[in-house]
Specification:
The protein is mostly helical. It has ten helices and no strands. The C terminus is likely disordered.
Length: about 160
């Protein structure tokens, strides 16, 4: 998918940081458009018949799964398509990445809780990511977590102070 010799260094330089990061996350050992779809919210190119294999077996050059990349960039439509495959794992890292995504944290967290809420274990790290990393919407995300999984959320003094 990438020309021979494409390196992280050649993806930086004259392009902005966000685009450079997205392009880095598209690099994979096995060529597949799924990482591009996840990084740039192009859900139309995700083939549900192949999504099962790709989302469970492929990793990009940095070891991230398709789900990791989709939540990192708030690609909710692509993530929704990936989540139609029931055996795709939503790991703690995926949930923390969603909680720490400042652009579309509420939408990504709502989608994860709606589709896989019973599979998601609410950890202190996840609650901290939601509260601390999102000055704009941390309160909204914490409210969402409390509404959907209130009995599983432990409010510590530190997470309370982060919201003030």
């Amino acid at each position: 998918m990438w020309p021979e010799g494409t390196t992280q260094q050649s993806l930086t330089g004259e392009i902005d940081w966000d685009l450079s990061a997205r392009l880095r996350d598209c690099r994979a050992k096995l060529p597949s458009p799924i990482f591009v779809a996840c990084a740039f919210e192009i859900s139309e190119v995700v083939d549900p018949t192949r999504a099962s294999f790709e989302a469970t077996n492929l990793r990009n050059a940095e070891g991230k799964t398709c789900q990791d990349v989709a939540v990192k960039y708030g690609s909710c439509a692509t993530l929704r398509t990936l989540m139609t495959v029931h055996h795709i794992k939503i790991t703690e890292e995926v949930v923390k990445a969603a909680a720490g995504n400042w652009k579309s944290v509420k939408d990504a967290m709502a989608l994860l809780l709606e589709k896989r809420g019973s599979d998601i274990i609410v950890t202190e790290e996840m609650a901290k990511a939601a509260a601390w990393n999102n000055m704009r919407s941390g309160k909204e995300v914490m409210t969402l977590l409390l509404e959907k999984r209130g009995s599983d959320v432990e409010i510590t003094e530190r997470s309370r102070l982060m919201q003030e």
